[in-house]
Design brief:
The chain has 2 helices and 9 strands; from the N terminus they run ββββββββαβα. It has helices at 130-142, 159-168; strands at 17-23, 29-34, 39-45, 55-59, 70-74, 85-100, 103-106, 109-114, 152-157. A hairpin with a 4-residue loop joins strand 2 and strand 3. The radius of gyration is 15 Å and the shape is globular.
Length: 171
């Protein structure tokens, strides 16, 4: 029986954000959860030379403006695998909007840090440097090359804003 990733709570018993990994760090293929089958399938290849810099996924039990669970990227040093559930803490939120089937829609991405014992190997504090923000913004834009999404970065918000956004997105 396939796990029901979408039925998981957004926060675990210790109050940590639960991120379900769809695409692991280093992958040049974007994976997505096929809700009907409960499996991860190939969504598309990224453009040549582009790969995920960190584990990418979503927070279950949430709904973003685009109708999907809230997107998330966990900044840690190792790749996991599709279906891994990572306990995390909020670092920031990058506001992104993109072209959808009904016009432009907000599709923000949570930036998370590991909250498991020994997981904070990047020694991430509470603020992201301007360089890290610029690199992540560039990745998010490049990851949508050759799609019709026309993604745009609308700004960055701190950890408190990210957590409020996440709590407001809970079902």
């Amino acid at each position: 029986m396939a796990p029901h990733f979408l039925s998981l709570a957004p926060f675990d018993a210790k109050g940590r954000v639960q991120m379900v990994v769809e695409t692991p760090r280093g992958s040049a293929i974007k994976y997505k959860l096929d809700e009907a089958q409960g499996i991860f399938t190939v969504s598309r290849s990224l453009a040549a030379g582009i790969s995920y810099p960190f584990d990418w996924g979503f927070v279950p039990g949430t709904k973003s403006a685009d109708g999907d669970p809230v997107d998330a990227l966990c900044l840690h040093s190792h790749a996991s695998f599709p279906g891994a559930v990572l306990p995390c803490r909020c670092l920031a939120l990058v506001a992104v909007d993109q072209q959808g089937s009904k016009g432009r829609v907000g599709n923000p991405r949570l930036i998370l840090a590991p909250a498991w014992e020994g997981g904070d190997v990047l020694e991430i504090g509470t603020d992201l440097s301007d360089r890290v923000k610029a690199e992540l913004a560039t990745f998010f834009l490049n990851a949508t090359l050759f799609t019709r999404k026309d993604a745009r970065i609308d700004g960055w918000h701190d950890a408190a804003f990210a957590e409020r956004y996440l709590r407001d997105a809970c079902l």
